[in-house]
Amino acid sequence: MEHNGLKNKVALITGAGEGIGFAIAQLLTQHGAKVALNDVDPAKCQAAVERLGQTGGTSVLSLPGDASDLKVITAMVHSTASHFGTLDFLVPNAGITLFGDFLTFAPEDFDKVIALNLKGAFFLIQQATKLWEKQGKGGKVVLMSSQVGIRAYKNLAAYGMTKAALRMLAKQLAYELAQYRVTINAIAPGATLTERTKEEEPDYEGTWSALNPNGRVGTPLDMAKTCLFLLSEDARHINGQTLIVDGGWDTAGKYPEDLS
Ligand SMILES: NC(=O)c1ccc[n+]([C@@H]2O[C@H](COP(=O)([O-])OP(=O)(O)OC[C@H]3O[C@@H](n4cnc5c(N)ncnc54)[C@H](O)[C@@H]3O)[C@@H](O)[C@H]2O)c1
To answer: How many helices and strands, by DSSP H and E, does the chain display?
Structure first.
């Protein structure tokens, strides 16, 4: 599917060495956009940039670093703008999923989840908006929330809390940043087959496909296609919303007949 307004646009995507972020970077480059690609793992970051080179992406900048670190965040926005001359799209995709029983969940783990999922996204948008204010031509943000920000899931209280907060951040900033011509939306992926989820659960696809009406697991490409739509001119009047991409999983919980 072709979208309007992506060619030659400049996007900064965090946590894009693999998984959903990489798929977004790949699809954007295939649509003629330029991409600054961040990952905390420098080797993964470099490998991803090389993979993009092999699939037709020529305008790709590698920005290794921790997307929860405020110095890295500021540097990433400046480096992207000075390398490409501008910044149009921001995808604060990096997120950490730490499982743990509520009663024993460690404060250090809580801090890690908040630092990346919330603080990282919040201050990255702040830095980009400062630039957009100067540029005067606005920008678009797509946040990565989660199905777990809508439905509870065992041992994910801290993570779920951050993903619910990102949905509110989209609403709040759609309202506050309109003065800078910034639009901001979020995607809430359901279970998505990535390198990480496959490693966490070898039969991830088999287990999770059965849980939604579509009968299939989400793919990074499903999320990337949604992200490109939200970044495109086709979605110009959509602002402050969260698009749930979960094969219909959130439409209903289990019913008595599902238990037999
Ligand atoms: N995969 C799913 O099923 C799923 C479902 C719902 C929401 N999400 C959300 O979508 C986003 C991407 O998910 P994913 O499964 O593709 O991610 P992932 O866990 O596979 O991580 C992608 C990349 O992020 C990098 N990363 C980790 N910490 C980082 C940091 N501090 N700074 C920069 N990079 C960092 C990793 O090295 C990795 O290469 C996350 O925010 C996640 O919470 C994923």
So the answer is: 9, 7
